[in-house]
Every structure is written in structure tokens, then in C-alpha cells.
Amino acid sequence: MSKVEFLKGLLIALESSEGKNAYRRMIEKIEKEILRCKV
Fold it and tell me: Looking at the record's lineage, which domain of life comes first (predicted)?
């Protein structure tokens, strides 16, 4: 849970960046990998 919360916080910090879409896609992929590890 802490890793997912960290990534979400990172996403919020990056949303002000110009390439927020690229960062969002990357973080979504990382979150999916974390969910796979849990299952």
C-alpha cells in the first residue's frame, strides 16, 4: 500500500509538468505491476 500511495503522490507532483500524460501512463503501468505481485 505504501508504494502505491507514494506513486500516487508522485503523480500529483508531476501533474504540473508538461509531460504529465507520459508520467501518468508510466505510473499506471507500475501500479498494475504492483497489483500483479499482490495477486
Answer: Bacteria
Q: What is the pTM of this model?
A: 0.43
What 29-38 contacts at long range (C-beta under 8 Å, 24+ apart), as own/partner pairs, is 31/4, 31/7, 34/3, 34/4, 34/7
Give how far the C-alpha of residue 28 lies from the chain's centroid of Cα atoms, to the nearest Å.
5
Q: Which domain holds residue 15?
A: 2-38
pLDDT in tens, 1-11: 688 888 787 77
Task: Indicate the number of domains in the chain.
Answer: 1
Could you say which DSSP state residue 17 is in? Answer: S
